[in-house]
Every structure is written in structure tokens, then in C-alpha cells.
Amino acid sequence: MKIVDYRQNTYKLLPAVIFDTNSNRPARRRNHVDKHRPTPTLEPLPYGKRGKQMDDGRRNMIAGLVAAAIPATAIAKDSASAQPLEFIHPGGLQKGSAAPPYSPAVKVGNLVFVSGTPAFNTDGKLAVGNFTAQMMQVMANITNILAAAGTNWSRVVKTNVCLTRREDFAEMNRIYASHFPDGKYPARTTLIVYSLPSPDFLLEIECMAILE
């Protein structure tokens, strides 16, 4: 019979005993041999140094898996909680009771988070059905928001673009690229969506920037 202690990955060979399956006792044909030595017992092998090392390894592996499952925002919770929030409301953007309950941008530490920005001009009007005009207005609005937060397009690290019409994708790219003349574009996700909060919105753009 071979007994394996997996904690140490060591092996101990014990003498075999044949049992009578009907009586669960050693078979008589082996009694003349077995009576001269005690029946082997299944005793655990010493735990030892290697077993401790393997347990430490398992513990470290589990800790690593748990850490990987925790979002980065949760890890930074303590440091972020010490940073005051600054709510950015540039002049000329829609404000007051008619405005939806959101801030155009929020600044915390050296990060600026810009909300999904529609194409309203400073008078609160929208170029209905004109994608080029709406796209240019959205980019101008975000330019103003970034400036109010103390930064600009060159510090934008991620943008999310929502379009309601697939055919506007090329025109969006043309106008979008003009705001990055050095060709250093931020990471971007572009979505073709079924609808936006207003049926006249042809796009919205949000972004995140890092202050210098």
C-alpha cells in the first residue's frame, strides 16, 4: 500500500495486507505472515518545512487573485478620498432648473472627467439634422470645458464617442483629427447607438484628461 502526503510530496511504502472482503479481516492464508508483524497504521507524515512553504505559496496565490479582482478605483479609494472635488461649470453652457442634474466636468487631483457633451451652442440651440455643425459644436464645448479645468486636448487620454448614424463616422473622424494636429490621438471608443437623450442629438462625446 502506498501512502502519499501531498503537502510534502513525499512517499512512504507500507507493507500490504490482504483482507477477506466478506469478513473485513486479514485473510487466513496470510495470517502466518501477518502475525509476526503489526498491522500497518496510516499515520500522517511529518509536516516539515516544505509543507509550510507550499501553504505559504497557496496563500500568496489566493492573495494575488483577490488583489487582481479589486478595481483600481477601490485600491485608490483612500488616496482619492483625501482629494477635494471641483465641479466645472464653464460659462455659456446650459445651467439652471432646465439643465439636467450633472456637471459638465469634475476635477479630482490631476484628473478631469468630462461628461457626455451634446451640441448645444451658447444660446442653448441645436443645429438639427446637421452633423457637421453638431460635431464642431461638441468639440468646441469640450474645448471650453477643458480650458475651465486648466487643461486642453493635448492632455486628453481617453474619449468615448456616441453616434446615432453610421454614415457620420467619416465626417466625425475628419473634424476630430483636426483637434490633434501633432497626430497624437488619445485612446478612443466609438459607438453607434440607437438613440441619445434628445432625438435631435446626432452625437455625444465624453473624455478624461490628466493635468500637467
TrEMBL record:
Q: What is this protein called?
A: RidA family protein
Q: Which lineage do the record's taxonomy fields give for this organism?
A: Bacteria, Pseudomonadati, Pseudomonadota, Betaproteobacteria, Burkholderiales
Does the record's keyword annotation contain rRNA-binding?
Answer: no
Q: Where is the composition biased (Basic residues)?
A: 26-35
> Which SUPFAM superfamilies does UniProt cross-reference here?
YjgF-like
- PANTHER family linked to this entry: 2-IMINOBUTANOATE/2-IMINOPROPANOATE DEAMINASE RIDA, 2-IMINOBUTANOATE_2-IMINOPROPANOATE DEAMINASE
A Pfam family annotated for this chain is: Ribonuc_L-PSP
Enzyme Commission number: 3.5.-.-
